[in-house]
Amino acid sequence: MDKLNKKDYENLVNKKVPKPTYGKNMIMAFIVGGIICTIGQGFTNYLQSVGFNEEQVSTGVSIIMVFLGSLLTGLGIYDKIGKIGGAGAAVPITGFANSIVAPAMEYKSEGFIFGVASKMFIIAGPVLVYGVGSSIIVGLLSILFKG
Q: Rounded to two decimals, what is the model's pTM?
């Protein structure tokens, strides 16, 4: 039996690996993210129409969207949305809710402390750390350059 050298093996692997469909992925992310944001805008318009002020509206919409993201994750629907929309489902606030609820559900069999509580932020934790860290850096740069 012939042995493949490293270059021939790489060529064989490259032929077999499916090529990503970047164009389709970008379009689906745009559509799914747009739908999620449109739903959020609908809640914003509704809360404004019933007389809530700007702060109440932003708080209310955030709570509603986190609840919907968590509920859909718990029902197994958000994973399907994520498979279709990719980053379009991951970026909005509903994606953040999904990134907290999914690991919590996955590790619930290990108990509430060593399962749910310790694993809940396994995905969202790094996002929070780097988000807070970068906001501090941007804030400091803003203070330095604006005087």
A: 0.73
